[in-house]
Input
Amino acid sequence: MRIAVPQNPLYKPLLQKVDDVCEQMGWSVHRASAEECASLLLNNHADLALLSPLGYGRGVGKVDFRIIPEPCMSLIDYTAVAGILFSENAQEIDTVGSRTPNEFLPIIGSLLMREKYEVADNPLVFATDFSTVDCLIEEYPLLGNSFPSQIALDVGEEWFDMIELPLPIGLWVCRNDAEMGNIAASVKSMASDTLTNVTVQETMNRETDYLAREGQINFQWSDEVEQGLDSVLRLFFYYQILPELPAIKLLGRD
Output
């Protein structure tokens, strides 16, 4: 079994013991960007990968994927995982920048801007000088000081405000033609022994009349997470990021 996992430390709770499990099972593990993990699974260079909804959707019409439903990772309301920063000089939001414009969170953030704030229908750009863009989508911790005054929207919160469902960001996905074995038990064993949902509360740097925002990073599959995934895929299809609407297929169910 060949598996691909993202290098992003965000997914560490799901991958705490990945090396130990792979050594025990005789599996090989490849660490790469989220985009490359999806490409490895799509092109049959991996049998199992931890993917974003975008990576899962890339298989539509090409490969028969199955989601291993638990554990997974999703954002519920404010989570301080990704933010949208605005230039204080912007009059209108015509350009959206990102250091990782092909990754899931910047893409979903840009779609939220279009849906909620009537942002111009421009693609994400990779700008050498980020002071030239009207807003910047970053994963936390926010890097550098791109704007003199940083005013951040939280991607998880903006999604929950619009959809009222969790935003899935990490899914175990396998090819249906792979040798399964007891794959579900194996991916559970890769996670931290203390894997529990994490409550996130906004840190307030000064006294303010606003209440601190709260949310949760969730690691359990549920009907609500599946509905959230369906909403993401439908949004991607609507904007033709995906050419077809992928079906949600779960290992052992579909």
Summary: The longest helix spans residues 223-238.
